[in-house]
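Researcher: I'm comparing several assemblies side by side, and this is the next one on my list. It has 1510 residues spread over two chains. Same procedure as the others: predict the full complex and return the structure.
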Amino acid sequence: MRSGHNWILIPLMLVLSMNFSFAQEKLVSGLVIDQDAVPLPGVSVVVRGTMRGVQTDFDGNYSISVSEGEVLQFSFIGQKTLEITVGASFVINVTMEEDVEALEEVVVQGYRSATREKSSIASQTLTSQTIENRPNANVIQTLSGQVAGLEINTATGQPGASPTVRLRGINSINGNTSPLFIVDGTPVDENNFKSINPQDIASIDVLKDAGATAVYGNRGANGVVYIKTKQGAYNTPLQINYTGILSFNSLQKNDYNLMDSQQQLTLENERGAGRGATLTPAEIAATPTFDWADYFFRTGLTQNHNLSLSSGGERFSQFTSLGYFDQEGILRNSDLKRFSIRNNVGGTSANDRFRYGTNISINFSKSNDPNAIGTQAVNQNYIIGAYNSVPYITPDDYVDGASLLDPLVFANTPLFLIDRLRNFTLLREELKMIGSFNASYKIQPQLTANLTMSADYQNEFLTAARRPESFNALLFGGAENPTSGFQQQASTRQFSYNQVTSLNYENSWGDHSVDAGAYMEYFKAHFRQFGYTANGLDPKTFYPGDGSGLIPVRYDSDAEALLFVDTANAESLDAGLFSYFAQVDYDFARRFGFTGTIRRDASYRFSASNKWATFYSLAGRWNIHNEAFMEDLPFDQLKLRASYGKAGNQRIAGGGYFTAPDLTRNFYATGTGYGGFNSIFLSQIANTTLRWETVAQFDVGVDFEVFKRRLRGSVDYYKKETTDLFQSRPVSAINAVTSLNANIGSLTNQGFDFTASYQLIRSSEPEGFNLVLNAVGNFNETNVGDIPTENGQRGNPDGITGTRNGGILNEYFVIRYAGVNPANGNLLFLTADGEVTENPNADTDRVWLGKNLIPKWQGSFGFNMDYKGFFLTTQFNYVTGVDRMDFDLQTFQDPNNIGTFRTSRDLLRAWTPENRITDIPSYGASNRDAYTFVSDRYLREADYLRLRFLQVGYKFPQRYLEHTGISRLQIFGNAENLFTISKWRGFDAEAQTNTNLLYPTPRIFSVGFEIGF
Amino acid sequence: MKNTKNLLTVILVFIGLTACNDAIDIDQKGRLDAETAFESVDDLQAGLFGVYDQFDITPDIAFQSIFTDELSIGFDNGGQGLADYGFVLNAGTTAPETFWVNGYVQLNFANRLIEAAENLSAEKIAEDPDTYNQILGETYALRAWGHFILLSYYSTDYTDDNALSIINLDFVPTIDQQLLRNTNGETFALIESDLTKAAGLLNGDLGVKRINADFITALRARIAAYREDYVAAASLAEELIAKYPLASRLDYEDMFLQDSDGEVIFKLERTNNDNYDDQGQTGSPAAGGWAGSCFAFVDATITGSPYFEMGRSLFNLLDPADIRYTVNVAPSSLIDPDYETNQNPELDILVIQKYPGSEGQPLMNDLKVFRVSEMYLIQAEAAVAQGDLGLAASLLKEIRDARFGTDTPLPVLGTSTLAYAAILDERRVELCFEGHRYLDLKRLGTRANKAVSKDAVDCAFNGACSLPPDDYRFTLPLPSVEFNGNPGLREQQNPGY
């Protein structure tokens, strides 16, 4: 009973004490308006130093219990925070002032930041608003179309795959063309964004001109993408946010007009090939049609769960997030599962002179990743199964791998691939950790010392296995590996460490202000890989990733051979950079400013030739809107910028940190030679003059905000020239190679970027109708110069493209197709002189078409609309100037495939003596195979307009959430790639490649909700 | 405060002084510098295996069979090799580039080894002078062979010493060198000089998988026949005929199906896990893997996915009593005697068996370069040229007797044209799928009044049934890839291209 009393007593005491404190408070109320006397809803009104607070309602009114002498803090985004001490009055009305500094988002300048007004560089900032709640595993895919000049091209639908990223054209032919990616100060490998949770991202700054990128020295030539993750705010109570999204991924449509079983079999019958050759019309009519795309592709399901917790005290803040992402690819056996956890903390010393922060994320992902995509291997590439399989074979025809061996016919392609789906594994498990620590200490009020240490660690564990009873194992097994099948495992570890130390000086006097810094940067990376391939698996105990079923090597006296020979491999590489640099930024009265940068940079790649390089830039601005003569004009901001500078590219051979580490030396190698004996052979011819590629960029641009910021945007013109281009220099075959790479030649990229957003309808009512239109665009042309051949032209290894001095990059250089000869059904071509011929010269009749795969115009436009909590967002991407070889169409129109693969109904139009005027040559055209891959017969325009993103949703107004404990709640649905308008007939207009049989990107529908406490 | 400042200064200075070099001056592991690559005779030996490894005749096997009349489109063909099968040949196609580039890789590697051998110190050579000489001798012989292969594809007329040949390469070139073609006379002189050097240096016989004195004789015999220097050809051939008996039927079968040596004078070894132990490029003159992969994906049986089958016109020359039928036609083949009337490719599947596989690996076999039967055929050719049709007939009979295992009738060779035709046909059967047919038609076609002749069923689909031996396509074009780096050579392109 005593304890019972205790239980009762405690709450009683609480109630008593609360009453006691309430007794001293009074209810204060008031109206909050902005500088234009418009009532401000949603203003946070907090009693300083407590967790007590309310928000203003839709008419800007608030009321709060408060004691006399306490301080009320009024804060609202874009307004200066106001503090008012409570006096005797019961009414406190407040007029808030616009906070110019806060409204202008802070712009990353590289190693420092500045306000938009004081920024002299060309850059574009994206906030989490346009990144969150999208269904892409890889955040880079989400950026597609959002940044002017940032080209994101995804050639595969594999979940999480890395797209090609280029900023303002292509700066290198063989070297790296991807911008430098930095996450919270850590340079990261751009190929592993599938491991980073997009929901954690607070903002992305894309730095474009030399004024911004020269400070990155020989890593900055392709621009910089600076990603900041979310941080907790000081003095904020715990906020918990959960987002859940469910997505449905499906195959996009094609326009190849493929035959059904009746048409296919009838055609086979006519041509005397395949199953149809021996069927009667009645049998043909009775055959069902099966579309194999429906088998190999599926509607993939994606789940995306994110939970974040953020909070902050007086001297400490933290942001923690947990993410789980699980996507089924639209292609069977392709998926990605990711678990991620992030913890970002920040803190300051009591006197505020010392500040520190750490950002740590740990991500684990597992991905089934079908290989051999894009190859012609009918027993490997599932895409062939989906597209090219004859429709009269069905999955019911599959029994097992062994029964496909006899008879072994190509028409069974889908069955080979069903077998592979069941018996082949390719799993990548990846652990990625990114961690950074930064600290700063204010030595003097103007002088700060900074340190950033960061590391990017990734370990990929690959398991590939083929079961012994599979078709492929039986097919290729042979006596050497009688219970064939193999398991391959490889562990690849990559670690990079980056450290920046700096001293920064910041001061202002009168109209002058200066921000200067001296920096030193150290970068080191290590690559370690090892693995094995084990041949011979015992089906009774084998499971992919496990070794129980591995059969040891043994000598077989009957075959006189070693059976089940296994192989092992290992590789170790290191890379490093070292740099020191300085930057000075000067501002005069917010009217003029300039930023100067100089950087000395050393790369391990050139240690034996040209170790050190110097890069620099100078950028200036004129804030015209701050001039007296602008006062009466409706400009909130008008800024003219110009910059010139040089940045470098030390990854001249492309690839990651470790490719081409020591091209400056002659090497021989040891390895297997004749008869399996160990041998020594030439492996590398030295290039003793090797150096980085240099990109010089001139940029002039205007940033503007007009009509009370209703119209905002910027326009930039740029011209970039890459010199010392590292490219293949053709040499005579007497050198044992036909080309060697050297720093010769140049590339120019020229064009302009624009971004604009216009608030077409801005409601003065809360929850009124708002409509914002926005557009971004880029026009770019890449031209080649100084080609190191005698005639200033060079063909590419693909045989269909090349480059010539002054021409566009990778221009088509082919024979022109001129249709079908009505007289005989043969193909007609044009000679170089334009004469019609059936037998062009494959070497000398090729002409330059002035077309290539690279877009001229690209960007997006769309609108954002909201009304009473409902919102609608659209983003249309457009690309023009892309010409692409449709080799998928070629396979569907190739009569050689009749009897084996599916063909297009186009073939029904083939030339016959009765049908002479047509675009499809006769089946027997004698010159049909001769020029297929050296002419423009299958060159097609691949420009497109695509509804890249559509989102509709409803955000519950605060008034519905009062007393629920929920602080925010929204539901939404979105669609990606909903429709595409294009002349391209294939599955995906987006992939800018001439490789066919690719895994197309999906169309995605999602539904989700977000809830916050 | 002061301490913190000092600490920072120390850190900055420390990093500045030490970190810099460790990040930039990096020696990657596992590298072998050119200066230290060849430091002993053993290293040269390893280098020699590197040179040998560049020699491969699967491109010859693939191209010479696809481009002539040894094949038909297999029932399991998925489009492989159709352009070459239709006689499509120009400066941009695969064959010219393959033979040109492969050839110069061989020569470049040989030259580097010769240079390294010359730079080896006298003391090191003195440790094992015999091996040193043997290595050098083999390398010179390989260099001679490499030159001859190149010449055989790119020279229009072997008998004309003034005709354009290839670029002679007996030194390590620098990358800016752009050389023009030598003449046949110059190239043959270089070949002969290398062979003479080699003959003087070789001091051991390491079996038929390595260069020995007989390789030199055989190569000289083949060259003499190509140049129509039949006096030399006959005596060189005779020399080897005296030494190597024709294989018995059993040995002949084993030679191909079990990779035994049989009547082989020289062959390139192919073994598990060497650099050619894979499928290579199927249906393409680039080939480069297992020899049998030139015709089938999986193995040399009807279930091994033969994308090329034996051409009907070749098959019709084979007598089932001939051991060459046994070797070349897989037992699992389907043979339709009425193939002409039935016109059904599924009833007539002629699977090529010459490269069934070895050491447990289907389709992988040693590549026979010289067999003694070729010497008989060279001697016969010489006999016809010298007007001795009787000798030619008896030499052909000798081969057939060995192949049939019985006393076959003496061939009747009425005229030299008929005699050449008989020799060409015998070569077609005896050396099929060994990389001879194309060059044989080029050399002997006109004299024998023979052309590429496919059976009508094999070319009904594309109409490419025949190619006369004087067609320009019997000489390969210089490849366009060479013109990029050596544009002056464009002026010396072969006629017709």
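Model: For your comparison table: DSSP finds 21 helices and nine strands in chain B.
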